[in-house]
């Protein structure tokens, strides 16, 4: 019987072939894999989701005119308006695109605002009331600020904050165009508000700066040019500081609405979990509007917050938050509602 051959090349696998080319993963590959993991769908379906163009959505603005008259004016122009049952005075425009309707006189006069449904939902869930002191911590371009002003008929006291001077200028123009009168614009780092205004506001809206995955359109030119894992990790640290500052500004019994237009758990559930661990009087609550019969038709575009992802566990109560999947009806978004006990 012959002597058994001893293998001595353990550093190389048995099937090693130096002529086999190495496989490189592109940015697109990483993005698709990550979205499939977060949304819990096959990779093959990811591109379909991010290849959809959003339908044109408008909300009629009661601060600049009678919404019934505005509706008649748009119908006279031949606009095909499809109402949204769960959002007052809100419509899909089925036969016009955003670029076209932004040029008409009614828009220039502030009679309606062009706004995505996910963004509209955030202001509705906040549910500000007349006489409430409201902080919109990262306000520009002003869509949610002007919506809150409209919903409260200019009877809430709103502070609209922004960090950059250039963005406050555009914010001021929007507020004037759409008639948000009881609104004060401030130029400040939102992370400082907790020190400046502790226990002050009844409602706080924090639409945090984010990686913007919900806005990505994969058929566009260089769709991932602003997206990276490094950016996600950097932003998540800022978001944790912002949400803590926002929570500190709340009165006891007040409501904080946290939203982003990204799908990342690190920027969403992880941020909420960090707040809950630091502040035992913070409580995530159900989104009543989303759970209502009026919203039933749109429920298919949402999924509950996730409690485990990529080896990390999040607070069980984040299941009460929602992730909105990108679609032609609603852009990708995340919403959590928190009360201060």
TrEMBL record:
Report domain SAM-dependent MTase RsmB/NOP-type positions. 46-341
Q: What are the binding positions for S-adenosyl-L-methionine in this chain?
A: 138-144, 162, 189, 207
SUPFAM superfamilies, A to Z:
S-adenosyl-L-methionine-dependent methyltransferases
Gene Ontology biological process terms in this record: RNA methylation; RNA processing
On whether Transport is a keyword of this UniProt record, the answer is no
Q: Which residues form a coiled coil?
A: none
Keywords of the record, alphabetical order, are: Cytoplasm, Methyltransferase, RNA-binding, S-adenosyl-L-methionine, Transferase
InterPro entries named in the record: Methyltr_RsmF_N, MeTrfase_RsmB-F_NOP2_cat, MeTrfase_RsmB-F_NOP2_dom, Nop2p, RCMT, RsmB/NOL1/NOP2-like_CS, SAM-dependent_MTases_sf
Q: Which NCBIfam families does this chain map to?
A: nop2p
Q: Which family does it belong to?
A: Belongs to the class I-like SAM-binding methyltransferase superfamily. RsmB/NOP family.
- Per its record, how is this protein called by name? SAM-dependent MTase RsmB/NOP-type domain-containing protein
């Amino acid at each position: 019987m012959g002597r058994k051959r001893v293998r001595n090349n353990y550093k190389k696998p048995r099937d090693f072939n130096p002529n086999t080319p190495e496989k490189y993963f592109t940015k697109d590959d990483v993005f698709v894999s990550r979205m499939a993991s977060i949304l819990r769908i096959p990779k093959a379906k990811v591109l379909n989701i991010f290849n959809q163009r959003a339908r044109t959505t408008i909300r009629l603005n009661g601060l600049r005119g009678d919404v019934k008259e505005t509706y008649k004016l748009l119908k006279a122009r031949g606009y095909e308006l499809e109402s949204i049952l769960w959002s007052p005075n809100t419509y899909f425009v089925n036969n016009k695109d955003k670029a076209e309707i932004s040029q008409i006189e009614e828009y220039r006069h502030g009679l309606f605002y062009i706004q995505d449904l996910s963004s509209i939902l955030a202001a509705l869930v906040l549910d500000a009331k007349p006489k409430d002191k409201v902080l919109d911590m990262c306000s520009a371009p002003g869509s949610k600020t002007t919506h809150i002003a409209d919903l409260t008929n200019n009877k809430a006291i709103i502070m609209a904050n922004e960090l950059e001077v250039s963005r406050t200028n555009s914010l001021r123009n929007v507020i004037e165009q759409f008639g948000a009168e009881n609104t004060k614009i401030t130029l400040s780092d939102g992370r400082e508000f907790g020190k400046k205004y502790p226990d002050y506001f009844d409602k706080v809206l924090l639409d945090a700066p984010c990686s913007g995955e919900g806005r990505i359109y994969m058929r566009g030119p260089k769709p991932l040019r602003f997206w990276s894992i490094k950016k996600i990790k950097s932003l998540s640290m800022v978001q944790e500081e912002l949400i803590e500052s926002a929570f500190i500004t709340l009165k006891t019994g007040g409501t904080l609405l946290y939203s982003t237009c990204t799908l990342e758990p690190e920027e969403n559930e992880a941020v909420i979990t960090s707040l809950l661990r630091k502040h035992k009087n913070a409580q995530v609550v159900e989104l009543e509007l989303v759970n209502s019969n009026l919203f039933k038709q749109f429920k298919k575009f949402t999924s509950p917050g996730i409690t485990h992802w990529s080896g990390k566990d999040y607070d069980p109560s984040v299941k009460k938050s929602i992730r909105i999947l990108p679609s032609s009806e609603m852009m990708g978004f995340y919403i959590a509602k928190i009360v201060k006990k």
